[in-house]
From TrEMBL:
<dbReference type="InterPro" id="IPR011852">
    <property type="entry name" value="TRAP_TAXI"/>
</dbReference>
<protein>
    <submittedName>
        <fullName>TAXI family TRAP transporter solute-binding subunit</fullName>
    </submittedName>
</protein>
<dbReference type="Pfam" id="PF16868">
    <property type="entry name" value="NMT1_3"/>
</dbReference>
Length: 331
């Protein structure tokens, strides 16, 4: 049966519109991306949710949804596989994962590229002030929460306490930060480990109802060769007064929390995302989301990165006059 010229024109027009909508530049084309963040109460989740919300509002052709996560290692795997497009991963996990050196995991996660440094994540080892734990050796036989299973916090704890020779002697509990703070107050655990920017809401939570103290692991770690084995960790001081009842500086160490993207994410999307978040308005917004974001700046954007930068990020930071190390550009 023959179509009339009018009907044929309608069919052809519909077909053309359909093709245009499927093209990358089509009128309804929109990049829908997933950002893998962290557990409730953790700094990762504040950052990932904040960035996702802002990009979805500010970039007309991008929609970013925030995903809850156990933390750094889960984000590394999600981004590498393409399950997530953006994530927050500790620099150490990106480095070890890329080189097949993660604990009990020899896979090489080579599809995860750094975009920018967000903040330093110091180790907090929280105990009750009157709980009788005064040194790392006192943790033997004690119930210690180290973060959720698969999190960067748990991974860092295992590296640290294994080097210090106490990991196998502790009663390790894989609890998220908020639950660990509650458990400490309820007497269900003896100590908990937080690997996040300060001030951390869960440590504040613990200090609100109990007198706490923070133990330093640095001296013992230095003697055990921890910083030689894991050079991406750097020393940092948690200032006195950061938490209630902690009235002296605490020497700790930190990893760098990095904003990362999968190799599959288009360079122009990365550039647009960085341009918005690292604008004056974007940075001011991030500080309102979480005060830890005060460490974000164009000048510090490449701090702590010892693995390759995404091509889109490389182009963006070059435009802002930053230079790169060989490790950051080798892909």
């Amino acid at each position: 049966m023959q179509r009339s010229p009018k009907n044929l024109a309608i069919v052809l027009a519909a077909a053309v519109i359909g093709v245009l909508l499927l093209l990358p530049g089509g009128a309804s084309a929109k990049d829908r991306l997933a950002f893998s963040g962290g557990p409730e109460g953790g700094t990762f989740q504040y950052f990932s949710n904040g960035i996702s919300t802002r990009l979805s509002k500010q970039l007309s052709d991008v929609e970013v949804s925030n995903m809850a996560s156990a933390g750094s290692l889960e984000n590394l795997r999600r981004v590498n596989s393409g399950e997530a497009d953006f994530g927050i991963v500790y620099s150490g996990d990106v480095y070890l994962g890329r080189n097949g050196k993660l604990t009990k995991d020899e896979n090489k996660y080579e599809n995860v590229w750094a975009l920018a440094y967000l903040y330093g994540a110091p180790a907090h080892l929280v105990v009750l002030a009157d709980g009788g734990i005064n040194s790392i050796a006192d943790l033997k036989g004690k119930r210690v929460a180290v973060g959720g299973a698969g999190s960067g916090a748990a991974s860092a704890a295992q590296r640290c306490f294994t080097t210090l020779g106490v990991w196998d002697d502790m009663k390790v509990e894989f609890l998220g930060y908020s639950k660990a703070a509650e458990a400490l107050g309820d007497g269900l655990i003896d100590a908990f480990w937080v690997f996040a920017g300060f001030p951390n809401s869960s440590v504040i939570q613990a200090a609100a109802s109990n007198k706490i103290k923070l133990l330093s692991v640095v001296e013992a770690a230095e003697k055990a060769g921890f910083f030689t084995e894991y050079p991406f960790y750097t020393k940092v001081t948690i200032p006195a007064g950061t938490y209630r009842s902690v009235d002296q500086d605490v020497l700790s160490f930190q990893d760098s929390a990095l904003w990362v993207a999968g190799a599959h994410v288009k360079p122009e999307v990365v550039q647009a995302a960085l341009a918005d978040i690292y604008s004056a308005d974007g940075l001011a917004y991030m500080v309102k989301v979480k005060s830890t974001a005060k460490s974000m700046s164009i000048e510090s954007a490449l701090d702590g990165i010892v693995t390759p930068i995404h091509p889109g990020a490389e182009a963006f930071w070059k435009e802002h006059g930053l230079t790169f190390t060989e490790m950051q550009t080798t892909r």
